[in-house]
Design goal:
globular, alpha+beta, Nuclear Transport Factor 2, Chain: A, 2 domains
Length: about 375
């Protein structure tokens, strides 16, 4: 009996000790400095808009000195953010030279979603919907435009009376555009400058409906009237690896009226063929709903890309695996194919912009409407 009571007492003491440890741990957790959310004022809006304006103008002028002035390079993350932008600037101008175009304007619509205080400044969560206007060098009176939408976490710190970027993260649309060494720049420039846009006035109504859906629900790249949102009927798969195939499937089903089947369907969740880029491409081709126009590196497919029609799609292969799907939504003033997609959100963006790395293989697929 004494032994039982001793064991019981020891057990109770152990339980009490564990509870004390748990309470202490919870107390430590609760005492951690959570970032308080603050009011989104005009002052904050104007400050962020000014930074984007200066950065966009620096991109237009290829001005590294002005770009550098926006960053706190005394911090590792601030330096990394600056260095990433220098690479992005180089990529954009390399692509423009390859394309035979000049950028006339870059303008970002900033939508701040929330702001938090930090020990040294502010942390912003925001959407940037950036519109790029460009003209071909032999057609400077004709302006084309596209939009790219990005989702940013951006920190500002004050240094010498000036607010500087000390940290920035967002999904970069130029991540796979770091190498133009293997692209026959002059050959392509001559070809595209001599091209004329195809007549799309007679494309069928299902293709037109597909494009309308793609324009409405391309998220942060859509026009302001659509609220920069995805279709809420469908799950957003970006946090799970990407939403590009899910969006392409929606375009074909909701926009163009393709019926679901046993393999390709959405019921609370999307099937593999609905949401996975590799499976989507395989399904479309093997089901007969799509037909391969051409497959290869950029040099091998760029002339064939002029055969693409609104409502067709492009699959992007990296290291032997399809990693991205975009849907053709139009052509520019030289007949160059433009695409919409999710992650990163794009609206009427030239189909190869951001995908010029030498390791990318392109699948150009005709959708059989």
């Amino acid at each position: 009996m004494y032994f039982f009571l001793t064991v019981k007492k020891t057990f109770l003491i152990s339980i009490m000790f564990i509870l004390i440890i748990c309470i202490f741990s919870i107390s430590l957790y609760n005492d951690s400095k959570a970032l308080p959310t603050i009011f989104i004022s005009d002052e904050h809006q104007n400050m962020i808009e000014k930074i984007f304006l200066i950065r966009n103008n620096a991109f237009l002028e290829n001005d590294l000195e002005t770009l550098e002035s926006l960053y706190n390079k005394n911090t590792k993350l601030g330096t990394w953010a600056y260095e990433h932008q220098t690479i992005k600037m180089k990529c954009l101008h390399n692509w423009a030279d390859k394309q035979g175009i000049v950028f006339n304007d870059i303008n970002t619509k900033v939508i701040i979603r929330h702001i938090k205080d930090t020990e040294s400044g502010y942390q912003y969560n925001l959407i940037g919907s950036t519109e790029y206007k460009y003209s071909y060098i032999d057609q400077q009176d004709v302006e084309n435009l596209f939009r790219i939408g990005t989702y940013h976490s951006l920190n500002l710190e004050k240094k010498d009376g000036k607010w500087l970027i000390s940290k920035e993260w967002y999904t970069d649309p130029f991540a796979d555009s770091l190498n133009l060494d293997n692209i026959k720049t002059e050959e392509f420039k001559e070809f595209v400058l001599s091209s004329k846009p195809a007549d799309l006035s007679n494309i069928n109504s299902r293709r037109i409906s597909a494009v309308e859906y793609a324009d409405k629900y391309c998220g942060a790249a859509a026009s302001e009237e659509y609220g920069y949102k995805y279709n809420k009927k469908y799950k957003d798969y970006n946090p799970l690896g990407g939403d590009c195939a899910n969006f392409a499937s929606q375009i074909l089903h909701e926009g163009a009226g393709f019926k679901k089947d046993y393999t390709w369907k959405y019921e609370k969740e999307g099937s593999k063929a609905w949401v996975n880029a590799q499976a989507f491409k395989d399904y479309m081709i093997y089901s007969g709903r799509g037909s391969l126009i051409l497959k290869g590196t950029y040099n091998q497919v760029f002339k064939g890309s002029f055969k693409l029609l609104p409502g067709d799609f492009i699959a992007y292969e990296k290291k032997g695996k399809i990693t991205h799907i975009s849907v053709v939504t139009g052509i520019d003033s030289k007949g160059y194919a433009l695409v919409n997609c999710h992650n990163t959100d794009r609206n009427r963006v030239p189909w190869d912009l951001g995908w010029n790395d030498k390791g990318i293989v392109f699948w150009l697929v005709r959708v059989n409407y």
